[in-house]
Amino acid sequence: MLGYDWPRLHALLNDLPSALLIAAVVFDLLGTFGRWPTMRQASFWTLVFGAIGGVLAVVSGLQAEKHIAHGNAVHEVMEHHEQLALITLGIFGVLALWRIVRESKMGNGERTLALLLSLAGAGVLFATGREGGELMFDHAAGIPSDVLQNELRQRAAGHHHGAGEDTEDHDAGEHDDADAHHDADAGHAHEAAPTGDSAQ
After folding, report:
1. No. of H helices and E strands in the chain?
2. Does a structural domain hold residue 47?
3. Are residues 105 and 178 in the same domain?
4. What pTM was estimated for this model as a whole?
5. Better pLDDT: 181 or 130
6. What is the mean pLDDT of residues 110-129?
7. Domain check: are 109 and 129 in the same one?
8. What is the pLDDT of residue 180?
9. CATH number assigned to the domain comprising residue 97
10. Of 112-116, 141-145, 168-172, which gets the smallest average pLDDT?
C-alpha cells in the first residue's frame, strides 16, 4: 500500500484531521466572541474537512488494530483509545452535518450550543491523542517485535556522542606532548655538544 502498512497509514492519517478539528474550534471561538463572519466560514470548512479526515483516521485505526501484535496491557489501552476516537468522530460528525444543514439559519442560541458541542469534542479529541501517545511511547505498539529487539540490543551497546572528537583531541594532545619532548631533548643535546673553542 504505497509502502505503508495499516499502523503506519493510521499514524500518517492522524495528524491533519486532528489539527483541522482543533482549528475549527478556535475559528468558531473567534467568530463567536470576536464577531468575525470570516472566522465562522473558516470554522465551517475546517470542520467539514476535519470530520472527513477523521473518518479515514478511524477506519485506518480499526484496521491497524488487527495487524498490531500486542498483549493484554496494550489491548486494554487500545480499546479505550478506539472508544474515544469513535466518540470524537461522532461528536464532530454530528456537528458537521448539523452545520451543513443549519449554518445559514443558526440563531445565537443554536450557535452557542454548537460551540459548546465543539468544545466537548475538542476535549475528547485531546484524550484520544493522549491514549494514542501512550500506545506508542509507553507500549511501543505498532513496532514489530524483531525491530524492537534489535533496537534494544543497539541501545544496550550504547552510543556516545562526540566520541570521535574526544579521540581526535586526545591524539592531538599526545602529538603536542611528543613535540614538546622532542624539543626538550634537542635542547639538551645542543647544550651537551662541545663548542669548537672548548675542543681546542
Report:
1. 7, 0
2. yes
3. no
4. 0.73
5. 130
6. 95
7. yes
8. 46
9. 1.20.120
10. 168-172
Taking the C-alpha atoms of residue 48 and residue 96, their distance in angstroms, rounded to an integer, is 6
Q: What distance in Å separates the CA atoms of residue 111 and residue 121, rounded to the nearest whole number?
A: 15
Do 83 and 41 sit in the same domain of this protein?
yes
Domain holding 59, by residue range, is 6-156
| Distant-in-sequence, close-in-space partners of 14: CB < 8 Å, separation ≥ 6 | 57, 61, 132
What count of residues does the chain have? 200
First to last CA, the chain: 96
- 92 with 188, same domain: the answer is no
pLDDT of residue 3: 58
Looking at the structure, tell me whether residues 167 and 149 fall in a common domain. Answer: no
Q: If you average pLDDT over residues 19-28, what whole number do you get? A: 96
Lowest mean pLDDT among 16-25, 99-108, 125-134, 143-152: 143-152
pLDDT of 176 above 70: no
CA torsion 128→133→139→141, rounded to 10°? 80
Fill in the DSSP letter of residue 143.
Answer: S
Mean pLDDT of the chain: 82
18-50 per-residue burial string, b: 16 or more CB within 10 A, e: under 16: bebbbbbbbbbebbbeeeeeebbebbbebbbbb
Give the phi and the psi of residue 19 in degrees, each rounded to 5: -65, -40
Q: Does a structural domain hold residue 200?
A: no
Is residue 199 in a domain? no
One domain, residues 91 and 188: no
C-alpha cell at 12: 500518517
159-175: burial string, b at 16+ Cβ within 10 Å, e else: eeeeeeeeeeeeeeeee
